[in-house]
Each structure stands twice: as C-alpha cells, then as structure tokens.
Design brief:
InterPro entries: FAD-dep_OxRdtase (IPR006076), FAD/NAD-bd_sf (IPR036188), FAO_M (IPR032503), GcvT/YgfZ/DmdA (IPR028896), GCVT_N (IPR006222), TrmE/GcvT-like (IPR027266). It holds the Pfam family DAO. It comes from Scophthalmus maximus. The chain is about 25% helix and about 25% strand. It has 15 helices and 30 strands. It has a nine-stranded mixed β-sheet.
C-alpha cells in the first residue's frame, strides 16, 4: 500500500482556524458519530459455491418480465428504477444477502465532477436518488453525508484539468471553487499545503453508505411491487432458438425453482463473466484486489471534506472522526480466484479492508444514473443518454474473450485511474491486436498509430522515423522489464497537453497536401459487411434513410436510424451484381446484395443494430462480416485521378466511371473493388472537387 506514505504526508496535525468566507458559502450536513470498525455485513461474503445455508427469503414467482441478478449497488438501482418506471413484475435475485459481493467494501465516495458530460449527468441523478428521492419515498435515511469534496493539484496541468471540470460543472449548476493553497489551509487545517498548486472544492459532494443505500432501494422497489429475493443463487440461464434461429432468453434456473423470463440483467459484479457464460455471452471483465485502511481517531478531522490527490493516486474518505485511506497502485493484484473470503484484518492503523473490484464504469457513485438508463433501455429499447461508453458492443467480439487483451487493458485502466484525461492520449496496453495489410509498411514510414476498436489506425506520421508500438510492459510492475527507448511512448508524452499537440504542424502539412495535391488514407479499420438473401431489398428499405435500390454498381451515402428517429450511423451502401462468390470482394447472390462500409470505431455496434432489425422484423437475410479479410485505402485530393489512372486498368473519366459508382478492376495485378465519391470544399472563391477512391484488397 504505497499510497499510505502519500496520505501521511498530506494530512498533518494543526489547529483549526476559522473558515474563510469563500468556504462557508453553504451549510453542510456532517456526521459526528465516533468511528466504528468497518463492519463486514455478513460472516461469509464472496462465499464458496456450496456456501448456501438457507433457502430464499421469499417464494420464487413462476414468471417475471425482468430478472435482475445481483444484489449490489447496480442491481438494486436497476430494480428500483424499473419499478419506478412502471415495470413492477420484476425480480431481483441475490445469492447471499444484499451488498454481500463487492458493494459492501466500496468507499462510497460521490464526486460530482468528471471529464464527461454524460457522467456528470449520471452522477447528478445518483446524488438526487441517494440524498433526496429515497428518503421522500420511504422515510428512511440512506446514510448520505454531504461533507464536500476536495481535489488536490500538485502541478499546473492538473489545476488546468480542474478548471475545465469547474467550467463543465457550471453548465449543470454544480457549485465548485478553485482555491489557493492558503484558502485550502483555511478549509482543511490538517492538510499539508506546502507542495500544492491549488485545489478544487465542491461543497455538495459527499459519502454514500452501501448497506443503507441498497436496503432503502430494495424497500422502495418492493413497495412498488418488485420482488427482492436473497439467499437464492442462480445456477443456469435457459436460452432457446426461436423459429428464425435467433437465440433468446427463456428462464433463470435456481436450486429452488425456475423463473420464466424474456429478459435477464447481469449485475453480478465479479461474477458477471461466469453469469454471462450461462447465457453464451462473453463479458470482458477481470477483478483486482482493492484495499483501503481505516485510521485511528484523528483530532480535528470531523466535518472535513473527502479528498482526492490524483497525482499521489490516493483518496481520503471521512469516516466519523477518522479517515479511510485508499489508492490505486501500478501493481494491483489480479483476483483470479473468487472462491475465498476478502480479509478484514486488524493492523496498527485501525483496520484494513480488502476486496475485489472490477474496472467497469458502473461504480456505486454512477449506479443511480446507470440504473435509470438501464431500466429505460429495457423498457423502451434504448437509453435516453449516449451510453456508448458503457455498452458492451463497444468491444469487438474477437476481444471479449481474449485473456491478454482483458488483463492488459484492465490493468492500465486501474493504474491510470487518477491520471489527467488528455484529449490526445492513447492506451499502451492491449495493442497490435488487429492489424491491417498495410500496417508494416506504414510503421516503417513513421506512422504513429491510434487504437480504435482493437485496430491499429494511422494517426499521423513522425518525421524522425519509425515509432512502433511495443508489447505492454505493465509500467514495470510484476517484475516486468520496462520498455526502454520507447519512441511511441515518448511521442505520446509530448501530446499530454490541453493545447495543440507538438505535431500539429505535421497534421497541417498533411491536410494541405490533400487539399492541393493528393493523399492516401488507410481506412482498413472500417467495418465491411455484406447483406444478402431473399429479403435483402426489404431489409435495405427498412434500414437505410436513402433509396439504395438503384442499379447494380451504384453507391449511396446514407444513414441508419433507430426507432425514435435518431441517427444510429452513417455509412455507404453499394448495390452488387448477382452472381457467384468472389470472396472477399463479392458474396454469392442470386438476387439483391449490398456491400456496407461502416466507421471502424462503431462497427460492432452497427453490426448488432442491423442484426437486431433483421431479427425483430423477421427478414430472411444473411449479414456477413469481412472486415478482417479486406484492406481499404482512400485516395483523396484534386490529383487523385491522375495517381489512380497509373495504377488501375480501367478508364477513370467521368463518362466511364461516374460519380457514386463502383466496380471490380485490377490494380497492380490484384482485383480490387473501386468506388468513386466527390467531396466539395470551398476555399475563398474557388471550388475544387476531390475524388475519393476506395480499393479493397485481401492480400496480407
């Protein structure tokens, strides 16, 4: 627990002077209860498979509209919001007791400001539920303590980040103040401010009580008709194929009976992967030990705000007249086996609490917002907010059961949990998972790659030579040899700024070359799908906003919409000639067939959207993915036609190869599918036309 040293240096004994006027802008509610030893809610938590000692707390119903599995924070929030939205035939199943999994040992901190506007909204809803709604509905206190929150900045970049957070907070009406070291000392007299650059103070941040919150949520849900059943582990999920061959959930199995249901919500925390396997769903999740210590009584600590020192990677949570101190280290212990009890051992401090934590977005402070969005998703088919960052479909299916990818990405997420969120940052973990045919040659020419959807995508070109991405070194943890002379990492470090990055002039040069001459874009990370089958035309009419049923050989730029009329994606759809398969350039088709080119970062999401439409509408179609089989390059600029005419064996004149058409031709001895597009740019009073050509090749 290296974070302890940072915490000790940060908090020093001092006499408390009066607060400055700035720091007394709001009345605050605090707990003055003497410190109690952290109570483990049940004698056995994270219990063994055979640890069931009693039957369920309520009889199981024969059926339910929704079964939520897991009685932690997110499970309780989800069942509460489902019931509140009117879906009352809902059951929550908990294998032991509420919060007995990972929720019991959470610190329960709620910070209102985050770098994402969506997360700020989710946090605001959680706070409203915990601090106001539940108490009004049930008359019970959830244990919420509004003692404020304080972010520590030890350098200018960190303070700049806090100022950005404060600006974002103003949009949502969140009170916050940037304080000088002296003002910070007035607010928190015990703090050592000698090395501070400044702080960000949010008066209405606070602390949640896991047990009190989940108990109150379950009572509120039960009062609306939902059933919360404890001591009822799930042993299986029945999945059957319907008449169209689509696999659908049918029932949840337990040792005490089966509940028929069309919908299961996986809120099982560290057991989410195991539960997903029961339904044939791969959940990319790994748990790690997370520990915090509870100090002895500290004189004068009462009523102080919670503290986050991001640069020291430590948090200080007020616990009566003591502190809970935790942090995020670069060498967390992976929790590979869950079949044992988290330890609660007495130390010279007061106590040490250690339990598993998963690197997911939906932590307790986001639980209220996520629970509401999940409930809305279940009832209405989609969330109200942009929840793409929480959607499992943001991961490509080839990665969700890749142990190396999961382990490396989870570690880096944990190790960088408190890092400044810069706009140009890229992960070092789980790289080189998906590489296109041009990866090696681009690397040799100095390409600085970005990671998107598992793909290595060209970002910009380093004039000083190659900067390849190396294998992940876990930042030197676990006796791993840290990468030396790592040019790619050095270039990333130079991009850690909120200003224009150092390579901004390189990008300017590349843009001007495209604008006035010609440039080649490697777009191989794009999704490349074929839509075929007897109902392909009906499906295309349903899916796409534009009329894509033009003559074979045509290409149409169009959108896909969702049920609410919102834009799901933009893409190009090319109608193909029927005929024998020339894979991967053309599928076998006796009728209508379409080639879809979709942005790589959302390819998996769009794939699932199309599949869902085909299933729900009963279209007899096949959707096949050839993204890994083909590369894609786009030649753009006023001189693109001149360059391509030297390579292709076909006439590229407007008459022979009109706008928005495509055909299979030869390029340097290889068959490629070529499409034309026209992009018009206006510069002063002149107008130029840029011809974009996409070549597909399956050479690796």
């Amino acid at each position: 627990m290296a974070f302890l040293g940072s915490a000790v240096r940060r908090v020093a004994s001092a006499v408390r002077p009066p607060l400055s006027p700035l720091c007394r802008t709001r009345a605050r509610s605090y707990s003055s209860t003497p410190t109690q030893e952290k109570s483990v809610p049940y004698e056995t938590t994270l219990k063994q498979e055979d640890g069931v000692t009693s039957g369920p707390t309520k009889p199981l119903p024969r059926s339910a509209d929704v079964v939520v599995i897991g009685g932690g924070s997110l499970g309780c929030q989800t069942v509460y919001h489902l019931a509140k939205m009117g879906l009352t035939n809902v059951v929550l199943l908990e294998r032991d007791r509420l919060t007995a999994g990972t929720t019991w040992h959470t610190a329960g901190l709620l910070w209102q400001l985050r770098p994402s506007d969506v997360e700020v909204e989710l946090l605001a809803h959680t706070r409203n539920v915990i601090s106001k709604d539940l108490e009004e509905e049930t008359g019970l206190h959830t244990g919420w303590i509004q003692n404020g929150g304080l972010f520590i900045a030890s350098n200018k970049q960190r303070l700049d980040e806090y100022k950005r957070l404060m600006s974002l907070g103003k949009v949502y009406g969140i009170e916050s103040h940037v304080l000088s070291p002296a003002e910070t000392k007035d607010l928190y007299p015990l703090m050592n401010v000698d090395d501070l650059y400044g702080t960000l103070y949010v008066p209405k941040d606070g602390t949640m009580d896991p047990a009190g919150t989940c108990t109150t949520l379950s009572r509120a849900a039960s009062a609306r008709g939902a059933k919360v059943i404890e001591n009822c582990p799930v042993t299986g999920i029945t999945v059957r194929a319907d008449d169209l061959g689509v696999k659908r959930v049918r029932a949840v199995e337990t040792p005490h009976g089966t509940i028929e249901t069309p919908c299961v919500v996986n809120c099982a925390g560290v057991w989410a992967t195991k539960l997903g396997e029961m339904a044939g769903v791969r959940v990319p999740l790994v748990a790690m030990h997370h520990a915090y210590v509870v100090t002895e009584r500290i004189e004068g600590i009462q009523n102080m705000p919670n503290v986050r020192d991001h640069d020291a990677s430590v948090y200080l949570r007020l616990q009566g007249d003591a502190l809970s101190v935790g942090g995020y280290e670069q060498n967390p212990i992976f929790w590979d086996e869950f079949a044992f009890i988290p330890n609660l051992e007495q130390t010279g401090i007061k106590s040490t609490v250690c339990g598993p934590g998963t690197r997911t977005h939906a932590r307790m402070m986001l639980g209220g917002g996520c629970g509401r969005e999940l409930a809305h998703w279940i009832i209405h088919g989609r969330p109200e907010k942009d929840m793409y960052g929480y959607d499992i479909r943001r991961f490509h299916n080839s990665l969700t059961d890749n142990k190396r990818w999961i382990r490396e990405r989870s570690h880096e997420s944990y190790a960088k949990n408190y890092s400044v969120v810069f706009p140009f940052d890229e992960p070092l973990a789980s790289r080189n998972m998906r590489k296109d045919p041009f990866h090696q040659v681009l690397t040799e020419h100095g390409c600085v790659f970005q990671e998107r959807h598992g793909w290595e995508r060209p970002g910009w070109f380093n004039k000083d030579g190659p900067a390849p991405v190396k294998d992940y070194d876990y930042y030197g943890a676990y006796d791993s040899q840290k990468n030396v002379n790592y040019k790619y990492n050095e270039l990333l470090g130079k991009e850690y700024t909120f200003d224009f990055p150092p390579h901004h002039d390189v990008i300017k040069s590349e843009c001007l070359s495209c604008r006035h001459g010609v440039a080649v874009f490697d777009m191989s990370y794009f999704g490349k799908f074929y839509l075929t089958g007897p109902d392909a035309k009906k499906a295309a009419d349903w899916l796409f906003t534009a009329d894509v049923n033009k003559n074979p050989g045509s290409t149409v730029y169009t959108c896909m919409l969702n049920k609410r009329g919102g834009a799901e994606a933009d893409l190009t759809v090319s109608r193909l000639e029927p005929g024998a398969a020339i894979l991967p350039l053309a599928p076998e088709s006796n009728g209508d067939a379409y080639y879809l080119a979709i942005g790589g970062g959302v390819a998996e999401h769009n794939w699932n959207h199309i599949r869902t439409v085909l299933q729900d509408q009963g279209f007899r179609c096949q959707l096949t993915d050839h993204s890994e089989d083909m590369g894609m390059i786009s030649i753009q600029g006023p001189k693109s036609r001149e360059v391509l005419q030297e390579v292709l064996d076909t006439d590229l004149s407007n008459e022979s190869f009109p706008f928005s058409t495509h055909k299979v031709v030869n390029a340097a001895g290889h068959q490629v599918r070529t499409r034309t597009h026209t992009h018009t740019h206006t510069h002063t009073h002149a107008r130029t036309h840029t011809f974009a050509w996409c070549l597909k090749t399956f050479q690796y």
